Amino acid sequence: MTPMLQITDLVKSFPQPEGGILTVLDVPKLEIEAGEQVALIGQSGGGKTTLLHLIAGLLVPDRGSIRINGTELTRLSEQGRDRFRAGAIGYVFQTFNLLPAFTAIENVRLGMTFGNGMQEPERASELLLRVGLADRERYRPSQLSVGQQQRVAIARAMAGKPKLLLADEPTANVDPGSAETVLNLIRHTCREEHVALLMVTHDMHVASKFDRVEELDEMNRAFTSIDHS
Amino acid sequence: MSLIQIAWRNFCHRSLSSILTTLSLALGVGLVVLVLSIYGVISEAFTRNASVGYNLVVGPKGSPLQLTLNSVFYLSQPIENLPYTEYMEFMTQDQRKAVVDRFGGDPSLAERGGRYAPYLGDGFVIPLALGDYFGEFRVVGTTPDFFEKLRHGPNVDQPFTFSAGRALEEFSPEHSYFEAVVGSRVANQMNVGIGDKFYPTHGDPSGHGHELGFTIVGVMDPTGTPNDRAAFVNLEGFYLMDGHAKPIESEESDEPESDEPESDEPESDEPESDDSDDDAGANVEEDGEKREARPEEYRLLSILQREVTALLVQTDPNNLFFGPAVQNAINEGIRSQAAAPVGEITKLMDLIVGPLRNALLVITLITCFVAAVGILVAIYNSMNDRRRDIAVMRALGARRSTVTAIIVLESMLVAIIGAVLGWILAHAAIAACSSRIEDQTGVQVGFFSTSSNEIWILPLVLALALIAALLPAWSAYRTDVGSNLSA
């Protein structure tokens, strides 16, 4: 069976202001099966977000392979990656990144605008209902609490019916009570929709809830699997 | 959500900036629409004025434009005056004889027909005598033919009509030689009506008033021509006012006159005073008291004492060559000139109004350009705020071209709203001033009165907005997703 995400020999480096090039990521291998939920831990500034950007096709690796649902991402043009991302990948940000000009439901619809959900306009309301914000559809982000904003962000990430959900420390900016809710919501929703989940976190408590945890070593050059099952 | 909805949301989110930018564009567009509309009104007013109902204006030698200005538009000062015998050159022998018999003059004048009479056919000639004012408005001495024979309107087929009263008559038992008809604007501005009497002032609006007054017997309907701004009086009554008789060296008013108009002495600028300043028979002293003269007591001027400022000539409309033939014949002489008013008006339009419109258009287009720069600055300045939004949309799957299109659409929204708002503002202003414009020019305008050039405004504004959007759109296109998501 083909894994949902398959990374092989992935290398990414950035030019440095003072000259020279810094390799921030060198991943020999990472695989996630369809519907599997994996936590990725590592030190701050350790290249975790860079890895998510590479998987989302927002960055291009120096070399290596990223295969998602059988599609080799590194061979796609930028437009192709945009199209693929819109149809196959959901993204939940640490800072939610809701667009302030739009209401909650419009933010969710925005997730469909560029993705697969355009045929199901009622899905936005349904997703907000599932994250417990059916009565906040017309609220703007500034009128929502931090936890509510993150729940809207989760609904938005799921709006395009992704195959893979990337979550970049989604509980880092919410209070502990809400963090539990947000985490459960993400995991539950992914399980319901059979979406593979790769969540970056630095919180071991959060990571401990996942079946599998991958840890980036200090040099960001290898993963160590911690199996909780 | 459609891209236009996303652009609209961005527009609303930055409401203050968006509204101010849109407003500045609306003002620019409004100015352009106003200039075009005003030009349209002026153009139509000129077209109406060009439809004068006659093909020649005859007056003393000088500038044909000045002759047209003072005879057609009642503007500027008359050049000089023509002797009445010039007028008689358009009369048949029978008509000349009747004039000589009635007013007295050289009998030889009745021995031949006028040189230009054969060219009149079904046409006409109407004399004008200018030089007096009623308030700020010109007093025009003329004959009843002015109202009977002249036509106006785009097809030159509309007779003058009256909102009250009737046309003046050469003589009426009621008012003798002193009937007047006023244009619609004169009636409004001077607040006069039927039965009112006015006393023209001599030479300029603040000149001395004549003792003889004219009774208003008619108020004309608005025509959109300069006639709305004139007070017409009976030519005979005009002659009877003091200072309107041409001075003659001999006491004999029926002194033989030369039959050759070219040999007459040059005339003065304005009809000058006779030896006596009194109106010809204006008042009669009886039993120590002054009373108004009875009609039979007025002494009509002899031909030698009469002058006309201009002649409105319509040559035989059945022969198009008569007009140029008469014009050439008159212009070959040394005393008179004949001008084609339509040509002079067109020249005036091309010389003054055209460049003025172009200058105004350039200024207003610069205003639009500045407004477009305003769009650029407003959107470009907001780019720093919206880089994260753009990055988020990119992360949600939006392509570079999509976020670029959203920026361009936002600029287009400002342009469309600004253009429509500007158009509405300008036309509302025009509609608000419509009655005043109609009073002043006779041109009817309303909210939906448009000029043909207005259809170019929206494409032009959209093009400007597109150009203005290029820089911010390029900035959006180049937005780095990774760094802005992490920011």
Question: How is this structure best described in words?
Answer:
The complex is a heterodimer of chains A (229) and B (487). In chain A, the strands form two sheets. Chain A has a six-stranded mixed beta sheet with strand order 6-7-8-3-9-10, sandwiched between helices. Chain A has 229 residues and is α/β, with parallel strands linked by helices. The model of chain A has no long low-confidence stretch (mean pLDDT 85). In chain A, α3 packs across α4, α3 packs parallel to α5 (146-159) and α4 crosses α5. Helices cover 32% and strands 26% of the residues of chain A. The longest helix of chain A is centred in the C-terminal third of the chain and has 18 residues, at 176-193. With 487 residues, chain B is of the alpha+beta class. Chain B folds into two domains: 3-46 and 352-486, no CATH class; 56-339, no CATH class. Helices cover 46% and strands 15% of the residues of chain B. Chain B is built from 14 helices and 17 strands. In chain B, strands 1, 3, 4, 7, 8, 9, 10, 11, 12, 16 and 17 form an eleven-stranded mixed beta sheet that branches. In chain B, a hairpin with a 2-residue loop joins β13 and β14 (289-292). In chain B, α1 packs across α11 (400-432), α2 (15-50) runs antiparallel to α10 and α10 packs parallel to α13. The longest helix of chain B is centred in the C-terminal third of the chain and has 55 residues, at 341-395. The chains are: A alpha/beta (229), B alpha+beta (487).
